[in-house]
């Protein structure tokens, strides 16, 4: 009788857990101390000069005045916001600023990304790097600027215009246009499928003793690292890459991967390496999403794979995330029920879109996408938000669901009740 080797937990026993958390807390403390020193250094000067890249540009109006709120990242990696009265597009540009930090900025504000008054002194010449050349290649394949913006967002992590971003949010698919582990996973799969036939051909002839997962996995991670550099290393993509590396390492070592313990370990390592994520809503939302995936696999993992991957996960994650998302974001639109279907369709769409752009035919699907993005305009988006106590109670229920099946059923019922309140008449 053959025996299946079961994966082992990465950490076992109180001693190993104590040593792990002691090490992560030490690293976290050192990083926080370093960030606090940078924070105090920022407030120590009445003004200073820096170069920064404009990540996002949001138009605002106040009476007869119009201005833009800019989100920038300095050359030292600090994210901050400022106001600009310049009537010219600055998104994606490098600018030199004179900053006037206020003494009222708290350390928490600094970690989140503070607002800092500034004066823009000059704009750098347009970059001619690889990312810029790829962006121009994408632009040339689309007559509709919104479509070009959309593809630059899902390929190069460029920020979307606020109007397009709001319509995509009304469809409930903001997670599909913000580069994350979902996109890295699809690209990883593409690399494997493309390289596996060639690798196996060479393996049989030259190196039959080699292990496919090690070689192709290493090459895939190297290529994904290059892609990470190309996109400018956005924080959301960086943490997804770290999780991918840890997950791949766990598979090679025979360590238990799809477990809440591994999720806890991964989250602790990422926070220790980048304490700014302690106050990052996107980080906690992504961790919550993965938590719900593991929870669904715990109770439905015995079903056929096509049912789990094609039905349970897309619908289940959407259902369970409803109370979380709508405790933080108030926009409610009935078209958000398309989210599970669109998430499924995105899996074949993403590699197809990459292939079409490589062939110079990226605009083929523009009309279909344009119609999709205008669907929310046909119905009213209302503002509804769940009270914070609902979120806390829901979180406790979710944690208890790990151990008790009946509480998991209660969790599903809470999600259904929240959906009824949000989308009911």
TrEMBL record:
It is a multi-pass membrane protein. One of its GO terms (cellular component) is plasma membrane. InterPro entries: ComEC_N (IPR004477), Competence_DNA_uptake (IPR052159). Pfam families: Competence. The chain crosses the membrane at residues 17-37, 168-195, 207-229, 241-264, 276-300, 306-329, 341-365, 407-424. It comes from the Bacteria. Its main location: membrane. It is found in: Cell membrane. Keywords: Cell membrane, Membrane, Transmembrane, Transmembrane helix. The keyword Coiled coil does not apply. This is ComEC/Rec2-related protein.
């Amino acid at each position: 009788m053959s025996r299946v080797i079961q994966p082992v937990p990465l950490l076992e026993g109180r001693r190993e857990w104590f040593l792990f958390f002691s090490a992560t807390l030490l690293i976290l403390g050192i990083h926080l101390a370093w960030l606090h020193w940078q924070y105090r250094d920022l407030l120590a000067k009445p003004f200073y000069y820096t170069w920064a890249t404009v990540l996002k540009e949001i138009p605002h109006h106040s009476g007869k005045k119009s201005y833009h709120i800019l989100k920038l990242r300095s050359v030292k990696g600090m994210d901050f916001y400022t106001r600009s009265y310049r009537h010219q597009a600055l998104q994606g540009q490098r600018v030199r600023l004179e900053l006037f930090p206020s003494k009222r900025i708290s350390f928490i504000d600094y970690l989140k990304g503070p607002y800092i008054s500034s004066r823009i002194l000059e704009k750098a010449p347009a970059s001619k790097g690889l990312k810029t050349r790829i962006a121009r290649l994408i632009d040339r394949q689309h007559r509709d600027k919104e479509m070009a913006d959309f593809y630059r967002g899902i390929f190069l992590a460029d920020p979307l215009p606020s109007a397009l971003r709001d319509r995509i949010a009304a469809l409930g698919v903001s997670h599909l246009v913000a580069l994350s582990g979902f996109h890295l996973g699809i690209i990883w799969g593409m690399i494997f499928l493309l390289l596996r036939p060639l690798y196996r051909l060479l393996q049989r002839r030259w190196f039959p003793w080699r292990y496919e997962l090690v070689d192709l996995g290493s090459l895939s991670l190297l290529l994904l690292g290059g892609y990470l550099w190309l996109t400018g290393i956005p924080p959301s993509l960086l943490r997804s890459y770290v999780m991918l590396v840890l997950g791949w390492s766990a598979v090679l070592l025979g360590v238990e991967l799809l477990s809440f313990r591994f999720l806890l370990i991964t989250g602790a390592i990422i926070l220790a390496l980048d304490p700014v994520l302690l106050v990052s809503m996107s980080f906690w939302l992504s961790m919550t999403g993965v938590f719900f995936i593991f929870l669904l696999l715990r109770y439905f993992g015995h079903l056929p794979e096509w049912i789990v991957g094609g039905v349970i996960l897309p619908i289940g994650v959407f259902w369970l995330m409803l109370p979380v998302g709508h405790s933080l974001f108030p926009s409610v639109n009935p078209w958000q029920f398309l989210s599970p279907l669109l998430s499924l369709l995105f899996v074949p769409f993403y590699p197809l879109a990459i292939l079409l752009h490589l062939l110079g035919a990226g605009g083929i699907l523009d009309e279909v996408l344009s119609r999709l993005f205008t669907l929310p305009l046909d119905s009213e988006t209302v503002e509804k938000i769940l009270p914070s106590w609902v979120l806390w109670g829901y979180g406790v229920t979710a944690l208890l669901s790990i151990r008790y099946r009946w509480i998991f059923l209660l969790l599903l019922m809470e999600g259904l009740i929240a959906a009824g309140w949000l989308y009911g008449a």
